Amino acid sequence: MAVIKVKRPKLSFGEKIYFGALIKGFLLTMKHAVDSMRGKSRGAKELASSGLGVTMQYPEQKWDEHLPEHYRGAPALVTDEQGRERCVSCQLCEFICPPKAIKITPSEIPADDQWAKVEKRPLEFDIDMIRCIYCGMCEEVCPEQAIFLRKDYAITGLSRKDMVHTKKKLYEIGGVRVGLVNKWNELK
């Protein structure tokens, strides 16, 4: 195999000290500054910015109307139309979660309950939002469509304990989801 030697181009004095690149960057920055002072910033109208630049004034202005349809936010548990929990505690979401952010403790449904055929329900269902990477694998693997990624990007807490969403909080923020749930199907 032949070896090809490539010669480096000779740099001028200005190129060696990056003088041209510095001037070019400075002029571009000044152009954007002057445009924003004149109210002609590119993208300012679409973002409903304050007029000076394209910076959105969060939290007064939010991205809610600008989020794409495929946006994946924080996971939440949902109930059906009658307020029953959809989760059958199969633990598939716990097993498939790459950062191991989900922890489920299953419990039995009493034999005298109308839905005893379901066998299990979650006693505890915790999601550590600090560890969650919003990959959506939990939503994809759920056979009962009990967990959904909502369009929420502002998840805050003052301590690590606040960032662990319990079953109660997950149902609270998840709400009701309409549609067929295999868990409650009489024919199953």
Automatic annotation (TrEMBL):
Cofactor note: Binds 2 [4Fe-4S] clusters per subunit.
Keyword vocabulary terms for this entry: 4Fe-4S, Cell membrane, Iron, Iron-sulfur, Membrane, Metal-binding, NAD, Quinone, Repeat, Translocase, Ubiquinone
4Fe-4S ferredoxin-type domain ranges (all copies): 75-107, 123-152
InterPro entries hit by this protein: 4Fe4S_Fe-S-bd, 4Fe4S_Fe_S_CS, NADH_quinone_OxRdtase_chainI
One Gene Ontology cellular component annotation held by this UniProt entry: plasma membrane
Membrane association type: Peripheral membrane protein
PROSITE patterns linked to this entry: 4FE4S_FER_1 (PS00198), 4FE4S_FER_2 (PS51379)
Family annotation (SUPFAM superfamilies): 4Fe-4S ferredoxins (SSF54862)
Residues noted as binding [4Fe-4S] cluster 1 in the record, renumbered to the chain: C87, C90, C93, C142
Catalysed reactions, as listed in the record: a quinone + NADH + 5 H(+)(in) = a quinol + NAD(+) + 4 H(+)(out)
Organism superkingdom: Bacteria
Annotated Pfam families: Fer4_7
EC nos: 7.1.1.-
Binding-site positions, [4Fe-4S] cluster 2: C97, C132, C135, C138
Main localization, broad class: membrane
Family per record: Belongs to the complex I 23 kDa subunit family.
HAMAP family, A to Z: NDH1_NuoI
Subunit structure: NDH-1 is composed of 14 different subunits. Subunits NuoA, H, J, K, L, M, N constitute the membrane sector of the complex.
Protein's recorded name: NADH-quinone oxidoreductase subunit I
Gene: nuoI
